[in-house]
What does this fold into?
Amino acid sequence: MRLTRKRLCSILIALYCLFSIYAAYHVFFGRSRRTQDASLRGLRKGAAPARERRGRGLYLWEHIFEGLLEPTDVTAQRREGNLVVGRTHYSFITGPAVVPGYFSVDENNVVLILNGREKAKVFYATQWLLYAQNLVQTQKLQHLAVVLLGNEHCNNEWINQFLKRNGGSVELLFIIYDSPWINNMDVFQWPLGVATYRNFPVVEANWSMLHNERPYLCNFVGTIYENSSRQALMNILKQDGNDKLCWVSAREQWQPQETNESLKNYQDALRQSDLTLCPAGVNTECYRIYEACSYGSVPVVEDVMTAGSCGNSSVYHNAPLQLLKSMNAPFIFIKNWKELPAILEKEKTIILQEKIQRRKRLLHWYQNFKAELKMRFINIVESSFLKNNKG
It folds into this structure.
């Protein structure tokens, strides 16, 4: 059947199963159990377990597509949005009520936004892929693509069997982190973005954000892991007394829950600092990079490869952070935190007018970054789905 642009209007950007184990058990094995509250990464007290796993979809829809969702209540069981780009209509559905079998089989084209960061989450993602694959095989669904929050070590072999090149149904894969699979033919890199699962908002720039003197040279709000570069960073800040000139809020244990107060403090740190220190964690790419951009605070990024299979910098010259570097991100990249004192000394000499221009450049770059990703995504999906239906 030939696919026209009019029919392509039915494309569904994101449907994904991000439910608790109890809900999944009910759906797939027929048991009637109530979904229990949980304290997962980023959950607010009393929220449904699915809240933790909705972040990548919300970054795509709200930050890159600049779409709105109804209802506005983030705790709603189901939220939907619609958006027209050119002649194409995009729909978005999210929430704990969205489980395999929820969306209409009248949809011809679907993009699933899935979480494959760890084994437990892979289980839920697999259920969605099996369901969607069955629809493709029975010709109830024509095209399938996936946006995947990949494993931080890039161990994503589980999804290989679902790729079309391997006999599966996934025609396009947009994957987060510097995966060696990226070929820009059927596998594309996608940004990590901000931590929407912790309710980080879409930030609108204002006059004060651009023009006010910021009282802090830099900021770091995060967890200090033993024998990590973050520990080295803290030691370097203390040696020269720069920790007194920066907004530093360090903790020894990671705190999975975000409160209104902690979110406000973090946003204030970004808003009132000229630089945001971004040490590598399990992976070099972190939410903090994009969150700093939202407030015009220049990311100082630890540009080192982390353990795992994400690529070798001696082979991939732009690794890590290939996507950001390919789009000329105006960041400060360093290889060792010993470089930081010189950066901060230079920062003390920069006049306000120069900082204002730098903020404008960063905010302008970030807006263009999101706009270009939006158009890339649309062009890749539409051209692939249209091409594959030419008789």
